[in-house]
Design brief:
The protein is of the alpha+beta class. The chain is built from six helices and 15 strands. It is globular.
Length: 228
C-alpha cells in the first residue's frame, strides 16, 4: 500500500476535528496522521495483499471469538496513539478490560489507545523502512506485540517492548505469546499465494482448537494452541 505524506503545517495545525472531518468527507480513502500533524494518504491495496489482509483478520477473529478476552479490528480502524499519531494497522486486538474503559463516544470515534497487538502486512509497493518506523512507534506507544509480515522476502519482524526487533526468516508459524495466548498463525498461505491447496478434495481447511474443551480438525497438537 503506497503512502503519500502531506505536510500541512503551512496551512496551520491539523486538529483532531479537522482530521475527523477529512476522513468523514472522503470515506473511500484511507488516511493516517503522523505525530507531528502530517496527513498520510494510503492507496488501495492490490489483489494479493487484499487477500492476505482478509486471511489475517479472519484468523485473528476466529481465535478472538474462542478466547473471548478481547476484540479484533481490521485495517479500516484508526487508533489515536498517546503521541498524537492516528494509525490504522492491518490487524489489531484490544483486551476487553481496556476497551470497556473507553467511553461510548471514544469507541464510536477513533479509539484513543494503542492496541495490545498489531500486525502490518507489507505490500510490494510499501517502504520497508517506513513500516519498521511505524512498528517502533506502535511499541513506543504501548503495543505489547507487533508483527511485520514481509511476504516478498518471506520474513517476519516481531516487535516487543524494550527489545530490538526479532527477525524470522521463512518461519512456518507465529505465536501470539502471552499477549494472544494459544494463538498460532500458519504462514505458508501468506508467503506464497500460488502454493497449491494441499488438502484433499472435499476436506475442510483445518482449524485446530487444541484445548481440552475445543478440538477441531486434524492439525491439533498438545501445546494448547489454536492453529489457524
Amino acid at each position: 500500500m503506497t503512502a503519500i505524506t502531506l505536510n500541512l503545517n503551512p496551512l496551520g495545525q491539523l486538529t483532531d476535528e479537522a482530521f475527523s472531518a477529512i476522513c468523514e468527507a472522503n470515506p473511500e480513502i484511507k488516511f493516517e496522521r503522523t505525530a507531528d500533524g502530517a496527513l498520510v494518504i494510503m492507496s488501495p491495496t492490490g489483489g494479493e495483499t487484499g487477500n492476505r489482509n482478509s486471511k489475517l483478520t479472519a484468523r485473528l477473529e476466529i481465535w478472538a471469538e474462542a478466547d473471548s478476552t478481547g476484540l479484533t479490528f481490521d485495517s479500516s480502524t484508526c487508533f489515536k496513539l498517546p503521541n498524537g499519531a492516528e494509525r490504522s494497522p492491518d490487524a489489531a486486538w484490544v483486551s476487553l478490560a481496556r476497551w470497556n474503559a473507553l467511553t461510548p463516544e471514544q469507541r464510536r470515534s477513533f479509539p484513543p489507545l494503542a492496541p495490545d497487538f498489531v500486525a502490518e502486512l507489507r505490500s510490494a509497493s510499501d517502504s520497508l523502512e517506513a513500516l519498521q518506523a511505524k512498528m517502533r512507534e506502535y511499541v513506543a506507544n504501548g503495543v505489547q506485540l507487533g508483527w511485520l509480515l514481509d511476504p516478498q522476502n518471506q520474513r517476519v519482524e516481531v516487535y516487543r517492548p524494550g527489545q530490538s526487533a526479532e527477525v524470522l526468516n521463512s518461519p512456518e508459524s507465529l505465536s501470539g505469546e502471552e499477549v494472544l495466548p494459544s494463538f498460532v498463525l500458519r504462514l505458508d498461505e501468506f508467503f506464497d499465494l500460488r502454493q497449491p491447496n494441499r488438502l484433499q478434495p472435499g476436506q475442510p481447511e483445518a482449524i485446530g482448537f487444541t484445548s481440552s474443551t475445543h478440538r477441531l480438525g486434524s492439525s491439533a497438537s498438545k501445546s494448547g494452541s489454536l492453529l489457524l
